[in-house]
Write a structure and sequence with these properties.
InterPro entries: Homeodomain-like_sf, InsJ-like_HTH, RNaseH_sf, Tc1-like_DDE_dom, Transpos_IS630-like, Winged_HTH_dom. By secondary structure, this protein is α/β, with parallel strands linked by helices. The chain has helices at about 5-20, 25-35, 35-50, 70-85, 100-110, 115-125, 140-160, 225-240, 255-265, 285-295, 305-320, 325-330; strands at about 165-175, 200-210, 215-220, 245-250, 270-275.
């Protein structure tokens, strides 16, 4: 009986009731339908108590929630700890939340030691999946990030709107001739090989983007220094339609005396704001940096600066003509607040 589908089981029960109503005994019915006398009696009793509802098949096994080693309150506490903390913050000898780390957390917090394989059941029940974690600097201040998102940036938007200015997001990046990214197909067991030059050549770039798709950029032959930064800022305010509200990080050159003096001389044309420290995930211009590095490394390896520079310039010119692509950076979950 138990091996039959639910519909077949219900039909067998209706058959038992029909035979019983025709006057057959429990023993005769049991012999005819292939059930025990007790089974036939139980079906008749359920029908007498519940009617047709007593013939329906119900869920099998223990009731949900029974047989667990953790109480509902304990599970809720463990879930909250995993969501809000990393293992090392709780004094556990793990970098990430693995099954072993969760087991040790449960043992320390709840006094219950479970098998590692049992953790898979609990994690699946909680809706937790194994994921590659995002990187956040240890020195970052979550409080400063919240203040930026809830107070500082909305105030900048309101000021820019009131003064009919444009908000630009600025950043610096670099490309290297030995940078290799992505994957390459090859026969199984034969790892592909690339041959970049170990005579490393590098090229710098400074850029600024808006959520309307505007892009300003300048290639740097070496490290970014105050004179180069001032030259870029001069171009930025010349090309802008109205006052520039520039948001960038806390790179030391941004606070150089020469740069500060230049900004003081142009208060009506440009005003700068600094992101919270160690928070590149708040800067949409990081999307351009990733785009550039991905595009350049897809091309044949550049083994010198003269070979690297045209590849960088070509891609940046293409981006300058693609405002939709620039706007797409702001669709990323980390940058959506600035869209």
């Amino acid at each position: 009986m138990r091996k039959l589908p639910a519909a077949a089981q219900e039909e067998r029960r209706r058959q038992v009731i029909g035979l019983r109503e025709s006057g057959l005994t429990y023993d005769a019915i049991a012999a005819q339908v292939g059930l025990t006398r007790t089974g036939v009696f139980d079906i008749c009793r359920r029908f007498a108590e519940q009617g047709q509802a007593g013939l329906a098949s119900g869920p099998r096994g223990p009731a949900p929630g029974t047989g667990r080693f953790l109480q509902v309150e304990q599970e809720a506490q463990v879930r909250a700890l995993i969501r809000r903390h990393t293992p090392d913050e709780l004094g556990l000898p793990f970098a990430l939340w693995s099954r072993a780390a969760v087991r040790e957390l449960i043992e320390r917090h709840c006094g219950v030691r479970l098998a590692v394989r049992t953790m898979s059941t609990y994690l699946a029940r909680w809706g937790f999946t194994a994921q590659k974690p995002l990187r956040r600097a240890y020195e970052q201040s979550p409080k400063a990030v919240r203040r930026w998102l809830r107070q500082d940036y909305p105030a900048i938007v309101a000021q820019a709107r009131g003064e009919k200015g444009t908000i630009f997001w600025g950043d610096e990046t670099g490309s290297r001739s030995d940078d290799v990214r992505g994957r390459s197909f090859a026969p199984r067991g034969r790892t592909p090989v690339v041959r970049p030059s170990h005579k490393r050549a590098g090229l710098g770039l400074i850029s600024a983007v808006t959520n309307k798709g505007e892009l300003r950029w300048m290639v740097l032959e070496g490290a970014l220094k105050a004179p180069s930064l001032i030259r870029f800022l001069t171009r930025l305010i010349q090309d802008a339609n109205g006052k520039v509200f520039l948001i960038w990080d806390n790179l030391p050159v941004h606070r150089a005396r020469a740069v500060q003096d230049w900004l003081t001389e142009h208060p009506g044309q440009i005003e700068v704001f600094h992101l919270p420290s160690y928070s590149p995930e708040l800067n949409p211009d990081e999307g351009l940096n990733a785009d550039l590095k991905h595009a350049v490394t897809r091309k044949p390896p550049a083994r010198s600066k003269p070979a690297l520079k045209p590849a960088v310039i070509s891609h940046m010119r293409r981006l300058a003509k693609s405002p939709g692509r620039i706007r797409s950076y702001f669709a990323h979950p980390s940058f959506r607040y600035a869209a």
